UniProtKB/TrEMBL annotation, chain A:
Start and end residues of each Circularly permuted ATP-grasp type domain: 78-457
Name by which UniProt lists this protein: Circularly permuted type 2 ATP-grasp protein
Gene3D superfamilies on file: 3.30.1490.270, 3.40.50.11290
Organism: Comamonas endophytica
Pfam family, one: CP_ATPgrasp_2
Automatic annotation (TrEMBL), chain B:
One Pfam entry name: Alpha-E
Species this chain originates from: Comamonas endophytica
Domain spans labelled DUF403: 1-315
InterPro entries in UniProt: ATP-dep_Glu-Cys_Ligase-2, DUF403
Protein name, per record: Alpha-E domain-containing protein
Top-level taxon in the UniProt lineage: Bacteria
Amino acid sequence: MQRFDEMYAATPFEGSDVRAHYKSYREWLSRQPADTMQARRAEAEMIFRRVGITFAVYGAKDEAGAGQERLIPFDTIPRIIPAPEWTHLQRGLTQRATALNRFIHDIYHGQDILRAGIVPSDLILDNAQFRPEMAGLKVPGDIYAQIAGIDIVRAANADGTGEYYVLEDNLRVPSGVSYMLENRRMMMRLFPDLFEQHAVAPVAHYPDLLLDTLRAVAPASAPEPTVVVLTPGMHNSAYFEHAFLAQQMGVELVEGQDLVVENDTVYMRTTHGRRRVDVIYRRLDDDFLDPEVFRADSSLGCAGLMRAYRAGNVAICNAIGTGIADDKSVYPFVPDMIRFYLGEEPLLSNVPTWMCRKEDDLKYVLDHLDELVVKEVHGAGGYGMLIGPAATRAEIEDFRQVLVGNPSGYIAQPTLSLSSCPTYVESGIAPRHIDLRPFVLSGKTVQMVAGGLTRVALKEGSLVVNSSQGGGTKDTWVLEDATEAEGSAAC
Amino acid sequence: MLSRTADHLYWMSRYIERAENTARLLSVSYDTSMLPKAARQGLKSWQGVLSISELVPAYREIHGEITRDKVLDFMVRDDSNPASILRCLRAARENARAVRGTLTTEVWETHNHTWLELRRQLDDGAFERDPAQFFEWVKERSHLSRGVTQGTMLQDDAYHFLRLGTALERADNTARLLDVKFHAIERGDYHGSASGGVAQFDFYHWSTLLRSVSAFEVYRKVYRDVITPGRVAELLILRPDMPRSLLASMQEVVANLTLVANAQSEETQRKAGRLLVDLRYARIEEILATGLHAYLTEFLERVNALGGDISRDFLVAN
């Protein structure tokens, strides 16, 4: 299979050409003594631990009885994207986020796209992610997914250049932006000279953009809106991110128990009594938001929230019911959505996808299980999937039974060879597969910072970059001007 | 600010202050245990350590006989002892973690680092190798936590709840310390007596108490005279300029309480103000005449009630 590495034109790396936008970094790296790089990596781990940049592991307790907190491995070699490529990505992401928001609005209002026969009705109306409670509800600015994490991969194409594909849209509570920001801080701390030599687009203003986006959807009755971040609490795996974003935006981090709804208005309980809340950046799933409407057994949310939402007294970001647009069974239709709502051709390609609910597609998938990736449409975190080329014959046969029993629960894609990036591993520097999650903010306008979170699969050959399965992260650089960077490196 | 946040901040600072006071107490008892027998006779300091935290029954259940090493282990690293330094520092860190977004990065990192470093010291035997060094470290971490709070936090409600927790815990701890030490004398566990006795015992007994609150040099500076129980009591109860005295702690409590006052806290402020004024206009002769133990018992009850009132007015969601 054709491979694509971000830094080198070919593997093995020895003697291979270095791609133009990596030349200056590669020169710098070759001048670094191995023990210096080793020391920097150890320092990074020490700092991450001291700063407490961790994620909680469910159900685990360490020997001192505190919940287990794990570090996400951080790799010191950046993933670099040249400016023209980023410009292309940014346009494609803006287009995609816009169409997805239009789609969600349509689904909860006119359902034009269903009536036009472009997306099958049963796929939406029978979907567990469809929230009938949202039907006809007016949300501020008609925006549903204020924060979208859109997963991008790059794979080799015939001429040996890489092509970007959208792998997945995350429109509910996408995580990872705090790692994007902390990775940059760490790199600047460890390698200040690199940032003098390269014009790396900054990302630190993300919390400002986020706050701006959240304030933009406040009810009109609140000229100085109070924004809060709603977390399920300290034991949630992304708690660090929730606390970090609240702090960086200078807003309260609340739990459900801190909120109370009265007269269809949301208040938080403060030392000076109750104070009105206008915008909730919620970091818990729909199911847990309001026991009056969703799961009655959940105490994570706040009873009456949906009443306040319906009355237009509070904005909830992302809106309820956005999951209908990031379902894997809906993913294959996103290019059609772009054509339908915007009248444009998609700038970013989907990964070719077989929908097992279709008879022909299912037949093809069953005949090619050993070369495809088959995914559960509601699965997440890299679970519930079959990676054909890496599976044993017995695993494939087991999966075949499951698939035949519930074809509409699965989609299949070719095993793209995700691009790799040189990464520190035990044996030294070696290629490891990566993906990219840019964070797209939709308020009055669509905004994003240059880059995103690069995740890296640390196991040799592995395509699974998810942190819950031992994936790591890297800093993502968008070089504002490659020629200038090379010029200054030469000084 | 959120009631829940205020609650975490208040308890975070109480727990770190409590860890510091435990370290102070253990440190002094540990030093005393190295004195020649004549000088330490009757001090019964290890029992005192347990009495202060009302832990004698809990300790006896686990260890039986009171020995230096067992008390040290119980008070430093025993996970079943809610007052152990391990438990206090973990609680401080867990409270900090719950509100890490409210703290400055420096304050959070200080607590997180303290916890990670504590685990390391306990795991690799650093504490057993050099207990004195370990106690110094706990005190330093507490100093650092107060210093970084003062040096970096916006002086808003969050800051005042932190100060409130520290001051209230300190008032409680100093009163307990005094009570246990004086009580031992009144019960006759001590060779000398409160009014005089063998000069050498007096010196070691009172200097121990003073050192436990970093007041030995202060005493010399203030009184320029030999150490007498009455003056020790005066210094630690009534001096407004002695940072760990009851009066100084209550000044701090009242000042911060005023700054966070809300619609329902009037009665709590009144009680706190009353306690402060009682201290401000008290005379040590009167206190000693009515009995120090009775006086301190009442003070502890009032401080405890105040803690309950503060919880009800500010920290419990309503």
